[in-house]
Amino acid sequence: MQDVLPMPPEVTRPISDVAPGVTGWRIVMVNVYGIRGPSGSWTLIDAGLYFSANRIRRWAEQQFGRGARPASIILTHAHFDHVGSLRELVEHWDVPVYAHPLEMPYLTGQSKYPPPDPLVGGGVYSLLSGAYPRGPINIGERLRPLPGDESVPGLPGWRWIPTPGHSPGHISLFREEDRVLIAGDAFVTTKQESVVAVAQQRPELHGPPAYYTCDWDAAALSVGRLAALEPNVVACGHGLPMVGPEMEDALEYLAEHFDVVARPAHGRYAHRPAITNETGIVALPPPIVSTAQKIAFAAAVAAGVVWLTFSKKGESA
Fold first, then answer.
1. DSSP character string of 69-101
2. CATH code of the domain in which 205 resides
């Protein structure tokens, strides 16, 4: 796997001004979005990290007015950094939550997500991923399936697009009129595995965050599906929004060369996906232990044997 070339700063757009009627806000390392609907209504896209519910509500009031309450919350997927504040927000606002049926097991307390793979992608966020919450959470009767006709509740002119791979029921949102794409984590505009890249918000087009992608074949097809839309504006779950022909060229390149620039050469899911269905995990490929891990384990065992040997000698003496 090799990195996509960095993008020039002029392709980025402030997250507060994605497109007409679309605004966003970055919470540490992940983005949430608000989309205006007809008659002053609005919809929240994703629910950010844990302990950010109050900040999301304050941001919503700044963007949509005092006491702002969305018509609904739509989830691109249910990874912890996209649903961290979901339960608190729906309890406060008492609004429905829409998700793809294949994401529902992780929102109804039925199943954990497939384990992350900390050995792919490089970077600190990958190495830490084994400690990330895998769920599930349970938001009860507020959960609704997205309409089967791919319409988006409360947002005429938008449609949802199935983009599995990063998660089993991942979706993206697209407005045909001006070709605005909210891609979730189907691809991202910063190297999400890297703490430095995320902190600097370096504009780079990448495949989905590698450590949590459980089906790379599906992820490749999803990026191809989104590139075929020829979006004018892309807004992702991680990184700044991007616009313009250079972004379009980079997205096309990512789609055409996905296996080179995005898919890891090795890893738990690199060549064998997690098998899931409407109930959650069905089967998983075995974890892959790296050479470094094997060496570290062998060294730890050897150190233990030496310590036991010398401690016994000491007791005998």
1. --SEEE-S---HHHHTTHHHHHHHH---EEE-G
2. 3.60.15.10
